[in-house]
Amino acid sequence: MLSNNHFYSFLKKSFTTRSSKIGVIGLGYVGLPLLIRFVEEGYKTIGFDIDEEKIAKLNIGNSYIKHIPGKKIKGILKKSFIGTSDWMQISEVDVIIMCLPTPLKNDNVPNLQYILETLLMIKPYLKKGQLLVLESTTYPGTTEEELVPFAEQCGFNIGENFFIGYSPEREDPGNQNFTTRNIPKVVSGHTKVCLDVVKTLYDTIVDTIIPVTSTKIAEMTKILENVHRAVNIGLVNELKIIADKMNIDIYEVIDAASTKPFGFTPYYPGPGLGGHCIPIDPFYLSWKAKQFGVEARFIELAGFVNTAMPKWVIGKLDEALDKKSKSLKTARILVLGLAYKKNIDDTRESPSLELINILLERGAEVDYYDPYINEIPKTRKYNFFLKSVTLTPKKIASYDGIILATDHDEFEYDIIGKNGKLIVDTRGRFRRDHNVIRA
Fold first, then answer.
1. 160, 202, 365, 378: which sits with the fewest CB atoms below 10 Å from its CB?
2. Which one is the CATH code of 6-212: 3.40.50.2020, 3.40.1190.20, 2.60.40.10, 3.40.50.720?
3. pLDDT digits over 24-74, tens only?
4. Is 210 in a helix, a strand, or coil?
């Protein structure tokens, strides 16, 4: 038996009986699906967020995430869910799960602002016997270096009267095949007792649990998953440029290579990286590596290649317009797709935003169309005041150039291809034709 501690025993029993109350902080693309999963398994839940508009929508049964239908929100309201921005209610929960953004500062230094500020806000309401789990992607050592000292300064003994764990999120918004329930869940704890508590909790909502021996390993696991993608996408983006110079269709090359039944995994080029994880998380490891005297050159090179993609795409557009004796400065350009990947409404770190930014800086008149996003949200870097246009064949034909940035399945590719004067295709969705440029 790991412990005779009554706090430990109480938590374990409360998970198996579903008598514990779960608090999820951060109700975005990670936190909201996680909270819904707890409700589905019979837990009472409280969702915390500083965005009052989100809380108001949830509490009347509305969703603000495209792939999570309103009927699902109404369903959890009928069971046992409360949305709030009142931190006092932290004292009412047995489990606190933090699903907060971890962006970068301008110099690619990790920004733990949201985690650290939240810890300070919940500090007065913490109590003995609670479990605190971080799900945000971050550099190896964050749990040990930030959460553990914080809890100890609050007077808790970790593993005895307070429990701390780390379990990296693995959400894939819009993916119909993999959900919070069937994606294997990596879990860790600051002590063996903490790990057992964390594992017991997630065992009740996830089919497969992968326990690891330290929070550092769990943190590094998530970073590895994202570095793996970032590096391979950087590689294929670089190959795209080489293939373009050689007049080779990189998409046909990838399709052919994908027929090999072993030793090859297809990755596809694009206009740059998007989403909260892949463009950001590798730099978390790179920054941490420098503290140990190591330069993560491979990772940083991939980041450089991927970050340069929007400029390369605009360069291809500029070159194509020049051949038509048209200047980008006087051109009307349509950007197709604002989300960072197809069939979702998530614009976080979307390369489409940088494409629009470059076009505007170059003096072009810019519109965008995205059936999932009616208006460009304000971000830390951009504030465009643009709304999605309505597309008709006549409207499509009015643009000097069209950039396919996000290949939503909902787009009418035949109509766009037939009426577009010049299409810069960054996703390989259009067949190569007189008016199509691969970029």
1. 378
2. 3.40.50.720
3. 999 999 999 999 999 999 999 999 999 999 999 999 999 998 889 888 898
4. strand
**Is 214-307's fold the same as 309-439's?**
yes
Percent of the chain residues topping a pLDDT of 90: 84
3-state SS assignment for residue 54: helix
Pairing of strands 185-189, 163-166: antiparallel
Q: What distance in Å separates the CA atoms of residue 321 and residue 164, rounded to the nearest whole number?
A: 57
* Residues with a known catalytic role: 277
Task: Return contacts of 370-377, CB within 8 angstroms, 24+ apart.
Answer: 370/336, 370/337, 370/338, 370/339, 370/406, 370/408, 371/408, 371/410, 371/411, 372/66, 372/338, 372/339, 372/343, 372/344, 372/345, 372/408, 373/338, 373/339, 373/345, 373/347, 376/338, 376/347, 377/347
Spatial separation of the C-alpha atoms in residues 200 and 63, rounded to whole Å: 30
Q: Quick check: helix, strand or coil at residue 196?
A: helix
Identify whether the C-beta of residue 436 lies closer than 8 Å to the C-beta of residue 423: yes
